[in-house]
Amino acid sequence: MTMSDDDILVPPKSRSGSRSRTAEARGPIIDQEGHEIRPETLDQGFREFRFEFGKDNPFAGNPFGNLTREQRIARLEAIAKLLDVAFILPGTNIRYGIDGLIGLIPVIGDIITTAISLWLVREARALGAPWYISARMLGNVAVDGVVGIVPFVGDAFDVMFRANMRNVRLLRRWLDKQPRM
User: Fold this and answer.
1) Helix or strand or coil: residue 13?
2) Which of 35, 110, 144, 162 is the most exposed place for a label (fewest CB within 10 A)?
């Protein structure tokens, strides 16, 4: 027996004649392989997906809270590559990233990508980058953001300037000069 479109789109009427907000299950619950699932076992299957933040340590279950220094640097490099050089223009050797694509949305796209770039600078500062490295990084972001606002010319500039890759390279050079701990 098939259901009509009205049964799918409109909730069934209750005995009192009003529409019911919560539909009751009609029949057994079946998994993807066609096996029946008992209702009492449903809650047990999702326990491994819960985040337990705990009262003592608010970051105990946070997957981003306890990263090592190298993991944070690798994350910054991955985000910079995604923003600036993730794709290749077919038939050419020109690389571009989502910074150039999102930048095609007038003003709002450039604000979004500038905010992400500023987050990269903040992370570099959290890694211990000195003020002069942070200032150069902010200068790269400012040039990218201001020129990026100009329609089409700014998008071409985003593809060629690659502010995020420059900033990660600045941070990596500074980190390589630091003594290992």
Assistant:
1) strand
2) 35
**Phi and psi of 101, rounded to 5°?**
-75, -50
Q: Assess contact for 10 and 18: CB atoms under 8 A.
A: no
3-state secondary structure the chain: CCCCHHHHHCCCECCCCCECCCCCCCCCEECCCCCEECHHHHHHHCHHHCCCCCCCCCCCCCCCCCCCHHHHHHHHHHHHHHHHCCEECCCCCCEECHHHHHCCCCCHHHHHHHHHHHHHHHHHHHCCCCHHHHHHHHHHHHHHHHHHCCCCHHHHHHHHHCHHHHHHHHHHHHHHHCCCC
Pairing of strands 87-88, 95-96: antiparallel
pLDDT in tens, 28-63: 666 656 667 776 666 555 555 555 555 554 444 455
Contact present, 165 and 80 (Cβ < 8 Å): yes
Token duo for residue 35? 């096996």
pTM: 0.63
With contact defined as beta carbons under 8 Å apart, do 45 and 38 qualify?
Answer: no
